[in-house]
Every structure is written in structure tokens, then in C-alpha cells.
Specification:
two-stranded antiparallel sheet
């Protein structure tokens, strides 16, 4: 598709603050430029070029006891699970053209319009919505970032023809959200108030599998390899592409440990803690931290969500003992 090494590293050269600094413009780039991508993936994830990845979306395997569920409802403000996906055979956003981008949108609008039950909702094209609709999406914090010099969209080439063929879908209860043609073809998000992680993951799994079934009916599918799992634009998200997070109230533990020690504690459990303004920042109201799985690859979706559940359970116990 014409994606070059120069394209792959452009974001890192123009915006070194981004962290990873390389992107893939097509699935094949991970193999074509493996001398670049393999060390980046190993450095970021600790995942070797000889490793294989497994996927497991069976939400019935999650373990959350009634006692844990009661504690989660007490300490967890909200729960959110998201993951990126790419459509096989179509260029990724940094390297795509208008025709392929519109094909992605068409395939996803078809899939999303067939959603039923609690997943049924409406698609809002970014370039063709009313001022009222746009303001409501802003108020709901659903709009994704606009391209700018400080974000990856503009620096990696994913902002061409903006906002053509980009959009946002959400269900009526606003617990299921899909971003179309942002950094990835698909960013699927399940969320709700409270700590019912099993319910949030079940909704996510049903939705993302439903989208895949629709794609297959139209001759497409998710881009996936045995080694890297699900392919995404940024190497930091390959594998599951999944981030499972809760907003967790830890006022006493924060007072006892401080930000850095709390971050180190979470890191030791394979988790990441973020304050109100991101990493290394103080918590939000009531000592709220965003706690999520740190890894994306080398463990299945079920395993990563369970890791988050187990870690949050330990943090709640430490909060109560602080």
C-alpha cells in the first residue's frame, strides 16, 4: 500500500513527547519493518519476537465474588473497558486514502446499525452533525480529540481529509460507544457508573464480536496474527488492544503512600494508576485514581480484566486497613 519507514517514524521525529514514536500504516508493516517494531514492542510490553498471543473474550470466566462486588460498588465510581480493532485488507489511518477510509466507515455503519437491544443506538458523522448534537457529545465527553501538533493524529498522517468519514456511535443509555476512523479503524468502549466489571466486559465482548460477524458477512474481518494478536496503529496497543479501568476511591491509601509509591504498588500488580491529570498527578475528588491493566499483549482479554479485578480488590483491602 506504499507505507514507508519514513512514514512509520515521522510521528516520533515531529513529536518526540508522544512516547512510542512509531506507527503502522498497514498490518504488513509489522513484518516488513520488524527490525524496528520488534524491539519497540519488546521494550514496551516485554513481549519477545518469538512469543505467541492468545485471545479469550468469554466473559463468563471472570471471577467476581458477591463480597467483592459489594466492595466494588462501595469504592468504584465508574468502570470502562475499551479496545481498538482494525479491518483486515484495508490500510490503517496513517496510510489510508479517502476511498478506503469511507469503506471502513460504510462497513462499520452497517454493523452498528444492526445492533439490537441495549446496544441499539445512533451514528453521528463528525462532519455532518448538528450544533446541538455536537454540543451534546462534548457535554458527554464522547467526542474524540481533534488533530493538533501535540497529538498523534496529526503527526502520524491520520488526519488527512479531516473530518471526512469519521464519526461516533453510542447506544441510547450511553453505556456503549464506538469511535470510527480516529487513531484506529475502530475504538470500542463499554462503560457505566459503579463497579460491575462483569457487566461492562460482557457488553464489550458481545458488541465487538457482533461487529466482527457483520464484517465477515461482507467479506472482511479483524486484522489479526498469531504473534501480535489484534493489529492496531500504535505498537502500544497490539495484542488485545484492551484497557480495562475503574475510577477508584483511595483517599486514605493516597494520604499514606503518596502518588509515586501508589503508582509503584500498582505497577507491581501489573496495573497502572493515573491521577486527575494523568500519570504522576494527584487524585481527583475523594482520592479517585484511574486504575487499569498495564499490559496489552501476552495475556488474553479475560486474563487482563481479571488481573485488574484482583488488583483492585487488593487496593480496596489496603484502603480499608490504611
Amino acid at each position: 500500500m506504499g507505507f514507508t519507514l519514513d512514514h512509520a517514524i515521522q510521528a516520533g521525529l515531529d513529536a518526540p513527547h508522544l512516547g512510542v514514536g512509531v506507527v503502522a500504516g498497514e498490518a504488513a508493516a509489522y513484518e516488513t519493518f520488524k527490525e524496528l517494531f520488534d524491539p519497540v514492542i519488546e521494550g514496551w510490553h516485554g513481549y519477545k519476537s518469538t512469543d505467541t498471543h492468545e485471545s479469550d473474550m468469554d466473559y463468563t470466566k471472570l471471577v467476581l465474588t458477591p463480597e467483592q462486588a459489594r466492595k466494588f460498588d462501595q469504592y468504584v465510581v465508574s468502570t470502562r473497558i475499551r479496545a481498538g480493532r482494525s479491518i483486515e485488507g484495508l490500510a490503517l489511518p496513517p496510510s489510508t486514502d479517502r476511498k478506503q477510509r469511507r469503506k471502513v466507515e460504510s462497513l462499520l455503519v452497517t454493523a452498528l446499525s444492526s445492533m439490537e437491544g441495549e446496544l441499539a443506538g445512533k451514528y453521528y458523522p463528525l462532519g455532518n452533525m448538528t450544533k446541538e448534537e455536537e454540543q451534546q457529545l462534548i457535554d458527554d465527553h464522547f467526542l474524540f480529540q481533534k488533530p493538533g501538533p501535540r497529538n498523534v493524529l496529526a503527526n502520524c498522517g491520520a488526519a488527512r481529509d479531516w473530518p471526512d468519514a469519521r464519526g461516533i456511535f453510542h447506544n441510547k443509555s450511553k453505556t456503549f460507544l464506538v469511535w470510527v476512523n480516529e487513531e484506529d479503524h475502530i475504538r470500542c468502549i463499554s462503560m457505566q457508573d459503579g463497579g460491575n466489571v462483569k457487566e461492562v466486559f460482557a457488553r464489550f465482548a458481545v458488541a465487538i464480536n457482533s461487529i466482527e460477524q457483520s464484517l465477515k458477512k461482507n467479506g472482511y474481518g479483524y486484522s489479526h496474527t498469531e504473534h501480535l494478536g489484534y493489529i492496531t496503529t500504535c505498537p502500544s496497543n497490539v495484542g488485545t488492544g484492551l484497557r480495562a479501568s475503574v475510577m477508584l476511591k483511595l483517599p486514605k491509601l493516597y494520604k499514606k503512600l503518596g502518588v509515586h509509591a501508589l503508582e509503584d504498588l500498582c505497577d507491581s500488580m501489573g496495573l497502572q494508576a493515573r491521577g486527575s491529570k494523568g500519570e504522576h498527578s494527584p487524585p481527583g475528588p475523594n482520592g479517585e485514581f484511574d486504575i487499569s491493566n498495564k499490559g496489552r499483549i501476552g495475556a488474553s482479554e479475560v486474563a487482563l480484566v481479571q488481573r485488574m479485578i484482583d488488583g483492585v480488590d487488593k487496593l480496596i483491602a489496603m484502603e480499608e486497613a490504611a
